[in-house]
Hints:
By secondary structure, the protein is mainly alpha-helical. It has helices at residues 20-38, 44-65, 72-79, 90-110, 121-132, 167-181, 184-187, 191-205, 212-226, 232-242, 244-257, 262-301, 307-319, 327-332, 337-340, 345-357; strands at 2-5, 11-14, 152-154, 159-161, 361-363, 369-371. A hairpin with a 4-residue loop joins strand 3 and strand 4.
Amino acid sequence: MKEVMTFKAGKFVFCDQYDKPQIEKQLVEAATLNSAISDLPILPKWSSQIDPELLYSSVAGTAAIEGNALVAEEVRALDEGKIPDAGHTAKDKLEITNLIGAYRLLDERQAMPSTAHLLAESHIRDLHRQITIGLPYEDNIPGVYRNGMVKVGDKAHGGIYTPPKIIEDVEMLMREFIEWINSGDLLNENAFVRAALAHYHFSLIHPFWDGNGRVARLVEALLLQSEGIRYVPKMLSNYYYRHVDDYYRAFSDTIRAEKDVTPFLEFNLRGVIESLQTMKTRIANLIRMLVMREHLHLLGSNKTISKRQNDLITLLLDDSSGKQFTLHELQKSLPYSMLYRKVSEMTARRDLKNLLDRKLLVVDADGRYSLNLRGFDL
């Protein structure tokens, strides 16, 4: 813990004290999941699908916390130059474009491994400049610290917080923040904890007129990426958006706790664990689908299933959305009806039974069929 006496705002505390048993329990779970994901094989084509999805979801999430209405699909379209002008302001679209550029700055930074784990004020100023350049925020100058009072939060989420307000305090606290986050104690701290502490304390200093939340979440992502942690850096922003009330409340509870950052760390690590669980399941299912394709080839080769049955499973594997279907939809609705519109109901039932027996399909109590991605699990 580090205490700094400011010129006007009184004592500011950089705190790394937390409930060890509770946080350690979450850290063990996070470490286990992260290790499991690291051990899973990832095909390049999977990464080329997953990485852009996470980027656009993260950009949409972190922007939505600040009131931007573009969703992930629109973020992708905007990045590809396809989004129509109707429905969104020029400001909304520029915020998104700037954020996409900021996340790509993180990827460039990650390509410098010798010092990637160290944070510098220049990185923070660069991120803020990228995020706010060209935007009509009152008083804000991209990359320049504020000199004046702002208020953060509201009564509905635990109260209003007033960060240090004069430029001398802001500049001093940012220097102290950089020194503290790069200190031996913090570098030896768990990577998830260090990144969360950076997020929290940067937000307390609130050094810019606007864009502080987005910069805080990007700084957290930068520190996680610098430790070789995949997926989570971009997934957390979306988690914060989906739990935005708890996000704000975690800040307020931690501010009130003063010398105990447990509330914010607990909330943050719940997001880390949820993100890791989601990604572990997704990658495991991609691997299961790969195994199923190979098994399907073998079943087709030895005539255990018919070509039509093979084509149905291939159709479901190509869709990859986990879509369910009924016997009626199999014969009457596209794309299944391309295979079954000229087939009798008895033949369709026989096909489904064989695929159920081979554990390629499962059926629920409502008679809806879907791929059995766990058919090969022990």
